[in-house]
Amino acid sequence: MSRPHIRPACLLAAAALVAGAAGADGTAGTAGAATTGAATNRAGATGAATTTAAAGPAAASPSAVTYTLVTEPSAGYGAIYDLIGSATTSIDLTMYELTDTTAEHDLAAAAARGVTVRVILDQNLEKSNNTAAYTYLNANGVPTHWASTSYAATHQKTLTVDDATTAIMSGNLTSQYYSTSRDFAVIENNSLDVKAIEKVFEADYAGTAITPTDGDHLVWSPTDAQSKILAIINGATTSLSVENEEMGYATVVTALENAAKRGVNVEVTMTNDDNEYADEFDALTAAGVHVRTYAYTASLYIHAKAIVADYGTSAATVDVGSQNFSSASLNKNRELGFITTSAPIISGINTALASDYAGGTAWS
Question: Mind listing the domains of the chain with CATH numbers?
């Protein structure tokens, strides 16, 4: 879903990046030494206190598998710009909406220095907003394709560099919303994940059909998103913390209701846009779900799509990515999410969700 106008800006807090070195199974090691430094968002925000945690007593080796959480709006998009700037051989970007001219210029600069840069942009819902970027990139050495119309929309937000590192995001590259949107990105280098993402990119870029594979952590729409997200909700035993931009899919609403009825503490935090989901909020509340909302005009807009299940237990799991709770998003769009049991990623997302829940207004 695309927001129709720019919401009020708010002051940015300190940048927050959490990284964990882990094995291929996504289980993070014990956080060890940390370093701090300054991070700059060239879209206009300057943040301090970038924190990097390495597994074990020493820093991770260059070949170690790492998972880094970027929490917006506090972090800014410096990590994404830096990823583009780090590319030496290739950049592949699939993006629902691209209006960030800094990112566009960085992509063109990468192409100018010899990096092979390719971009896929949605045309089904966001063609008018994406046309300026489409025109600029194609004119500046970046072959940019409109996404396939075989999907209801290409809502995926993924940046992959050098066939080695990928950023799986809940947020679009729309700088007018950076200062107010709650969003997350996971930057990781798990080879199975990266290979699966690149295989899908190749097919989508060429406009050919593909059944994606999941690597170690991936959740694809329209392939298996509904089953995997429902498995997290239905499998929760103690708690569910949820943020999403949409709540119009009865199948997900029912699963959340059933979780509350079986004794799971379910907390849902969303932006309330003209009571669009009032009926769903009423039904969730009646079932025992704790729903809190923010006004559409508030300084924080809940754009994230995240679920933290059973936080604080050995079964803790998080899902984060582009998938909204709609039938189209789960079953008709091209979307990508990320599921992990990595403790640093879970902790970072849970901290943000708990803060947002505390600041919301109880639905009644």
Answer: 67-213 (3.30.870.10), 225-362 (3.30.870.10)
